[in-house]
Amino acid sequence: MSKTSELLPRPVYLLTAGALAFMAILPLLNPGDFIINVAFMVCLYAYLSLCWNLPSGFAGQFSLGHALFYGLGAYSAGLLYMKFQLTPWLGMILGPLLAIGVALVIGYATFRLHFSYYSLAALAVAEVMRLVFLSWDYVGGAYGIWYAPIHSYSWIDFQFNSVRIPYNYITLVMLAGVLLLTWKIRHSDFGLRLMAIRDDEVGARSLGINPLTHKLLILAISAGLTAAGGVLYAQFTQYVEPNSTMSVWVTMDMILPAMMGGLGITYGPVIGSFILTPLSWATRVLLGDTLQIVLRGVILMLIVAFLPDGILKTVIDKYTRPKLIKR
Amino acid sequence: MYLRIQGLTKKFGGIVAVDNVSMDIEKGEIVGLIGPNGSGKTTLLDTVSGFLEKDGGRVLLDGEDVTKLRPEELARKGAARTFQVCRVFEKMTVLDNLLSVPIKSASEEKSRRVKESIEMTGLGPVTYEYAKNLSGGQKKLLELSRALMLDPEVMLMDEPFAGVDPAMLSRLVNLVRNLNSARKTFILVEHNMAIIRELCNRVVVLDEGKKISEGRPEDIEHDPRVIEAYLG
User: pLDDT tens, B90-140?
Assistant: First the structure.
């Protein structure tokens, strides 16, 4: 007998495929810089939220410090390029390695305890690192690292200034890749064991599952991929500073799509980001930054109050699963 | 001797919860573990299965020293454990609960075992139900059948029959009896003396962490120490 699928209704798959296809076509329609940039952010945050969802949604290790991994990626690319004149693509190796290293240290120190210790330790380390980077002259302090932008575009410099759309396609490919990876993990024995650990760690141990190694592995995967997202962000903005890469708000932006779409459900973060990110940019333009943050808080409260399991979980429980159960 | 517990001791601060307890269990035996609340039965199981560190003593499984093993290692050696308060994976379906158990066998063998255990336990109609929506008795059945996915040689069960209706009870008891006839070994913590009499070859009585009596069920029921400490 094979594992229970997520039992998503067919429209969810069609909607996701449609959304990704839309993102593939959109940049070709010449919709203007703002739309192109928002489209990039939608895909980037879908990607980041998927990464966050791996340890948090599937293994129950709710992370409040993912911005740390993201920031390490962004700074790796920025420093390699501006201090060492090396291609930022190397950041795709260095950033993930640093992030994995830090993740393993935090994880090893806290994963034997209740998940909240990991949550808080990750938050604390991320905040401390943000403060360190703010006052560390070598990495530019609060001023950050400003790229010397090239005027055309270059793959080796990982900059596309005359034509911006390669950023959109690189993100889209990364998004599709991590979506596929999530699907694979969700439907693997490893994924089942992660969920077993999430639901009852003692029970899982009694069946021969080692929670520590499972949690470390999924966190390492997630941290590495999140750092790769940070590299992409650094190349896109060509400017890296601590607050926009390592602050808890960045982590919040990874958490919200997953919470809204469905925590621990493969497609949840994608659905969430496609709803939330455009909304957040629209309100940023229409209402300004402060009200935008207020609105984000209101959305979070509404989710917790009315859709505590997220959109997809509610859909599954109401429509698809009841058909499978013979009473 | 299949499972050998020697001088097992567990302290919580000044309280000696398990005090120098020894017992030997033969392969294919069903041993009942009884005693008043707080006498150390669950702590004994937790200590043997590696969830709690031992303050003294040794545990041997089939001749091998397993004293220092972690619970997940012990499970892989063939000693499975169920809990007083069911530890089913609540947000997973019954099917996924069973499939989450890591076993080395090929996937066909795993599927066969899952099918078999769903048939054996009668959980078929709720295969795709979330474990949290099961009744108390169904959860007990699920936890037991999930542990059986490991194909364990010895089962350490903490009050598997508590809070279960009579129909479910007879199903669980039959399940244990069938497994036992296939030479599986059991340690059962149980308060229901009727079930103890029906199932167990031997009973060990604990009181305040110490073993106060041991013997056939019909004999210990007449032991004055047991009557005073437990049966009343």
Answer: 999 999 999 999 987 777 888 888 988 888 888 888 888 899 999 888 999
Beta-strand (E) ranges in B175-222? 185-189, 202-207, 210-215
- B197/B128 Cα distance (integer angstroms): 36
The token pair that represents A291 in the structure block = 């009200």
- At A216-247, the pLDDT tens digits run 999 999 999 999 999 999 999 999 999 999 99
Would you list the domain boundaries of chain B?
Answer: 3-85+136-231
CA distance A315 to A309: 10
Structure tokens at B209: 């962490």
Q: Do A192 and B126 touch (CB under 8 A)?
A: no
pLDDT tens-digit profile of A26-47? 989 988 889 999 999 999 999 9
CATH number of B3-85+136-231: 3.40.50.300
Q: Which residue of A has its CA nearest to B84?
A: A203
Cβ–Cβ below 8 Å for A207 and B100: yes
Which among B84, B88, B100 is the top mutation candidate for probing chain A, defined by the most A β-carbons within 10 Å of its own β-carbon?
B100
Q: Which residue in the set A3, A206, A326 is minimally distant from B96, CB to CB? A: A3
Cβ-Cβ contacts under 8 Å between A and B: the total is 103
Which residue among B51, B73, B128 sits closest to A4, beta carbon to beta carbon?
A: B128
State ipTM.
Answer: 0.91
Find the CATH number of the domain harbouring A130.
1.10.3470
How many whole angstroms separate alpha carbon A149 and alpha carbon A163?
Answer: 13
Using a CB-CB distance cutoff of 8 angstroms, which residues of chain A are in contact with residue B66? none
